C-alpha cells in the first residue's frame, strides 16, 4: 500500500492524521495520505517565502527555465509511473490518460517556460512640460508565494497548468491537490527533488475538504496570490479568505456549457464532437456540454445518432485495450451524479439511454460506474439543466432560430465554454461574438493552443491563463519612469 507524504522545504513530511485514497474502478485502497495540518501549512508557506530570496531568486530567467525543461523531461522519463498513478486515482482509461493528462503535464512546464523567455514589456517616451523627455518602461517581478489549489478531474494537467507558469515567473508555490487524487502531485514533488529544485520552491500539502490544508493555505496571510480550479461555491469561500489582506485570485470555476448543433453542420462530425464533449473523461471535464440544442429539422436524427454513439462506449478495466469509458472519480461523486439521474426522472425527462448505475461484473461491481445518459423533454427550469452535474450525461432540446439558440446558450449564470457545429462561416463568427463564454469552439471541442487565453466569464471564473495572459497573474508589473 502506498503512503502519500507532504513535501515541505525539500523534506518529506508525515503527520499523525491520515485519510484513504481509493480506486474508483473497484473501490480498492490505493494508499493512505498524510493530512497536513496548520503547522505543516505554516512551515510550507514559510519555506516558500524564504526560497524567494534564496538561490531560486538569484537565478537568471534562463537558468530557471532550464530547470523547468528538466522537470518536463523527468515527467516524460517517468511517464509510466505518472500514468499508473493517475489511472489508480481516477480510473480513467489508459488511452485518454496517455494521450491527454500525462503529456500535457510535461508540456505545461516546457511550453510556459519557453513563453516566459519571450514575454515583452511596454516602453513609452514622452515630452515633459519643461521641454525635455522622459522614458517609461515596465518590468515584471514575481508575485511571491503562490497557493495552488487544484481539482480531481485532470489532476496532473490542471495542477501543472498553474505550477509551470508560476515557477517560470520566478514565484514559489505551495500546492494543495484534491483529496481524491493525491498521487501525481506526490510524484511531481519527487521530480522536483530529482531535478534539484532548491528547497522551498515547490511545496506540497495534502488536505481533506474544508477546515483543512486548503482552507489554512488560502487564509494564510503570507500567501501573495491564490490560483484555484474547482467548484464555484469553493471559489466563493476562497475569495472571502483572500479578501483579508486584499490578495489577488485567479479562478477557473464550474460551468453548464451549451453545445449548439445547426442543421447545416457536418452531421457525422457533430455527433462525434458532442459524443466527446458529453462523455469524455466520464463527463468530468469542466468544458464539457451537459445541455445541447439541436436545430429542429435534424433533432430526431441527431438524438438517434448520439444514442448509438453513447451506447458504443466501452467501460472496463482502464488498462484494457478498447476500453474508452471510466468510472466516476469517487463514491461521493457517484452519489451526486446518481441523484441528478433521479431528479431528471422526477422532472419528467425521457431517458433516451442510460439514466442509471452501470452494474459491471466481478471486481468492478464495487466501482463508481454510471451509464452514459441522454435525456430529452425537460423544461429549461429543471435543476438538471441549470446545475453542473459533472457526469456523463446530456440533455438534448430542439431550437428553431439562431437567435433562440443564442438565448438558450446564454441562459445560465455560468460562462465557461461553448461548442457550435455549423458550416456557415458568417454564422460561426456571429455566434463567437454573441455567446457569453471565455472559450468558444466552432466545429471542434477541447482543442487547445497553449498560447491562447483560457478562463471563464460570469460565474465560471476570474482572470485568464494561457500565453501572455498567464503572466498578468503570476507577475507584478512595475512602471519605471526616467526623466532624461
Ligand atoms: P472542489 O471545489 O470541491 O475542490 C477543488 C479544490 O479545492 C480541492 O483541492 C479541494 O480540496 C479544495 N478545497 C475545498 N474546500 C476548500 C476551502 N474551503 N478552501 C480552500 N480549498 C478548498 O472541486 P472538485 O475537486 O470537486 O472539482 C470539480 C469542479 O472543478 C467542478 O465544479 C468543475 O467545473 C471545476 N473545474 C473547473 C475547471 C475550469 O477550468 N473552469 C477545470 C476543471 C474543473 P479537497 O479535495 O480536499 O476538498
Automatic annotation (TrEMBL):
Name recorded for this polypeptide: 2-hydroxymuconic semialdehyde dehydrogenase
Show where the Aldehyde dehydrogenase domain sits. Answer: 12-480
Q: What class of enzyme is it?
A: oxidoreductase
Q: Which GO terms describe its molecular function?
A: betaine-aldehyde dehydrogenase (NAD+) activity
Q: Which PANTHER family would you find in this protein's record?
A: 2-AMINOMUCONIC SEMIALDEHYDE DEHYDROGENASE
The UniProt entry annotates the active site at 252
Q: Does this entry carry the keyword tRNA-binding?
A: no
Family that this chain belongs to? Belongs to the aldehyde dehydrogenase family.
**Pfam families assigned:** Aldedh (PF00171)
State the PROSITE patterns in the record.
ALDEHYDE_DEHYDR_CYS, ALDEHYDE_DEHYDR_GLU
Q: Which domain of life is it from?
A: Bacteria
What CDD domains does the record point to?
ALDH_F8_HMSADH
**Keyword set for this entry?**
NAD, Oxidoreductase
E.C. numbers: 1.2.1.85, 1.2.1.8
- Report if keyword Ribosomal protein is assigned: no
Amino acid at each position: 500500500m502506498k503512503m502519500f507524504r507532504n513535501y515541505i522545504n525539500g523534506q518529506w513530511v508525515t503527520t499523525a492524521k491520515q485519510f484513504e485514497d481509493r480506486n474508483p474502478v473497484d473501490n480498492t485502497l490505493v494508499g493512505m495520505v498524510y493530512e497536513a495540518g496548520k503547522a505543516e501549512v505554516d512551515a510550507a508557506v514559510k519555506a516558500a517565502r524564504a526560497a524567494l530570496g534564496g538561490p531560486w531568486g538569484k537565478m537568471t530567467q534562463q537558468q530557471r527555465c532550464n530547470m523547468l525543461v528538466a522537470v518536463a523531461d523527468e515527467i516524460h522519463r517517468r511517464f509510466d509511473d505518472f500514468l499508473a498513478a493517475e489511472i489508480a486515482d481516477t480510473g480513467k482509461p489508459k488511452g485518454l490518460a496517455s494521450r491527454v493528462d500525462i503529456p500535457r503535464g510535461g508540456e505545461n512546464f516546457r511550453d510556459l517556460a519557453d513563453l516566459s523567455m519571450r514575454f515583452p514589456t511596454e516602453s513609452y517616451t514622452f515630452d515633459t512640460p519643461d521641454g525635455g523627455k522622459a522614458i517609461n518602461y515596465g518590468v515584471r517581478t514575481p508575485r511571491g508565494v503562490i497557493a495552488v489549489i487544484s481539482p480531481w478531474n485532470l489532476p496532473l494537467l490542471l495542477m501543472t497548468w498553474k505550477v509551470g507558469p508560476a515557477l517560470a515567473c520566478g514565484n514559489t508555490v505551495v500546492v494543495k491537490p484534491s483529496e481524491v487524487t493525491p498521487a501525481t502531485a506526490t510524484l511531481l514533488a519527487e521530480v522536483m527533488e530529482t531535478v534539484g529544485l532548491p528547497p522551498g520552491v515547490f511545496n506540497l500539502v495534502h488536505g481533506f475538504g474544508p477546515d483543512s490544508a486548503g482552507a489554512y493555505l488560502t487564509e494564510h496571510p503570507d500567501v501573495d496570490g491564490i490560483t484555484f480550479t474547482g467548484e464555484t461555491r469553493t471559489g466563493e469561500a476562497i475569495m472571502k479568505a483572500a479578501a483579508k489582506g486584499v490578495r489577488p485570485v485567479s479562478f477557473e470555476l464550474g460551468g453548464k456549457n451549451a453545445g449548439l448543433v445547426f442543421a447545416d453542420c457536418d452531421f457525422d462530425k457533430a455527433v462525434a464532437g458532442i459524443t466527446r464533449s458529453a462523455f469524455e473523461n466520464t463527463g468530468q471535464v469542466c468544458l464539457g456540454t451537459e445541455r445541447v440544442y439541436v436545430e429542429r429539422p435534424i433533432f430526431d436524427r441527431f438524438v438517434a445518432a448520439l444514442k448509438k454513439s453513447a451506447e458504443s462506449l466501452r467501460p472496463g478495466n482502464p488498462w484494457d485495450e478498447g476500453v474508452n469509458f471510466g468510472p466516476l472519480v469517487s463514491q461521493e461523486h457517484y452519489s451526486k451524479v446518481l441523484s441528478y439521474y433521479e431528479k431528471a426522472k422526477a422532472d419528467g425527462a425521457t431517458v433516451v439511454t442510460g439514466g442509471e448505475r452501470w452494474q459491471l461484473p466481478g471486481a468492478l461491481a464495487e466501482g463508481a460506474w454510471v451509464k452514459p445518459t441522454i435525456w430529452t423533454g425537460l423544461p429549461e427550469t429543471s435543476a438538471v439543466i441549470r446545475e453542473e452535474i459533472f457526469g456523463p450525461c446530456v440533455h438534448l432540446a430542439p431550437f428553431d432560430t439562431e437567435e433562440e439558440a443564442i438565448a438558450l446558450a446564454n441562459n445560465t449564470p455560468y460562462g465557461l465554454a461553448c461548442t457550435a457545429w455549423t458550416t456557415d462561416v458568417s454564422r460561426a463568427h456571429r455566434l463567437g461574438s454573441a455567446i457569453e463564454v471565455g472559450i468558444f469552439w466552432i466545429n471542434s471541442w477541447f482543442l487547445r493552443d497553449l498560447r491562447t487565453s483560457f478562463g471563464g466569464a460570469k460565474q465560471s471564473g476570474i482572470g485568464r491563463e494561457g500565453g501572455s495572459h498567464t503572466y498578468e497573474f503570476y507577475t507584478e508589473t512595475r512602471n519605471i519612469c526616467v526623466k532624461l
